[in-house]
User: Fold these one by one.
Assistant:
Number 1:
Amino acid sequence: MDRFATTLPRPSGSGRRRLGAAALALALGAALACAGCVGAPPGTVPASLAGFERTFDMALAAITDQNMNIDVNDRRGGRIVGSLDGDAISATLEPLLDGTIGVSFRQRGDSASGAALLKRVVDAYNKRMAASQTVLPESNP
């Protein structure tokens, strides 16, 4: 036997269970942490607290900000499609059960220029929504 080697006692039954539970908790924590590393898919924006009409107008303006042609403008159906140089971006609005408006932007195709256009549209929408929520209300003298 090596004189520098030490032997540690093996955990008893309850000690093994605690060790197993700790290992499981560590594994679950690592899995959840990794799941948080994955960002939201492109085109995903937070649900809007503004009304449907206002949210639709903001999505339409974000698309027109990019000088896109409006191919579909279906306010009742909550759908907008804009195109520019062969790339198309669609915006879909859907009322959610909690009273907010779900908005999603999608590109047609997988081109790099379409992905860049999608990012610009989403950025324009987010900028418009942020600006509309920071407008001060009229003061009553």
Number 2:
Amino acid sequence: MAHTPLAPLSAGIVVATLLALVAPAAGSSNWTLALNTGSKAEAQAQPGPSPPGGVSDACVSSSGRTVTVSWNAVADASSYTIFKSTTSSSSGFSSTKTGETATSWTSGTLAADNYWFTVEALVGTKWVSVQSAATGETTIATSGTECQQP
């Protein structure tokens, strides 16, 4: 069987079709599809960056209402986003700090509730990891030892 070269418009349609077929499902890992110049419409997918590991949180003091979240650096990360949940360790997360360039972050004063934190890494301007595993539960009480960790 002879191979027929693709016309430029056909190559664009093939790339668009590949993009639609390779798009990740919601909640799955981030993938980037790249098409190199002169590749004759041969595409290559690469996985996104790994999420930060070693994510933990610690009470700044037992009588306070602030926590410090720490994590291991991700290679080539330009910044990190910290998420918090008052629902559970697996749902209800919302962004609480974006653009953090260090590998730790200290919260402001937290309201009485139970908290879990996750972190994601941003590499460059478009590569984002999935969120890390959640920290253990931290409880901010209304009186006594205000910041508690099991």
Number 3:
Amino acid sequence: MAVRPEFDRNAQETMLLVAITRSSIPQLLRHHSSQQFSIAPGWLLTCVTDNFLFRLDVSDQEITGSESLMASSENRDHDVMFVAARFLRNHNTLQVSKHSVSGRPIYYCADTNGGFFLSTHIAMLRQAGIAIEEDPDVLPELLTYRVISPPRTLYRHVRQLQLAGQLVVRLKNDSWVVSDPHVGCDPEAATTARSEEEVVGEVAHVLNKSIAKLGSAVPRVATLLSGGVDSSILGTIARDRLSAFGTTSSALQERSAE
């Protein structure tokens, strides 16, 4: 299978690229929104944003590229960052996070010189000089499920950040070390006073209460099961609350493509 990702011209308006390299990348600096910073002896940080949904904020302590609906606004008190790539100057550390409501793909990889690259577009990684090669090992998953589950992608040595995922990249022995991605925590979760048990309990209460209302509305309830987690949870609650014990399976014959 030949995979040749081309840069979507419509997608150019929304983009982020972060590159930590030993030398400048001229083809990236041609972007009008690109900025370059010296972050450590022998290392440069290059950031490219669209200045629309993605914006770059620079201070003495950190350099942050983030995506949000209010990115172009000065007042962002109630804003939610869908994606954030935050470089902490004093710690030589890049922290990347992806909110659980974000649908933006975040691809990342390292090069043979110890550098690190992150972007919303595969074509931007290629433009930065990363060799994009097909990974035949993922084809069985693609052909079976028609999707590749993160962190794997269609390309060798290129990974993708999962929903509610976090990634930490640190400078160690003059090279950038990528930590194992952490999944299951939104960026602002660390500042909330509510425990995980409280949040789970509240969600369970709302689901039980909503489903229980169906008992007085209809004489009989059926649940459509997709086989995923969401429908399985709803099916379990419907069984306990509404005595929906029966399960029926059916197969649909696919039409020929001819």
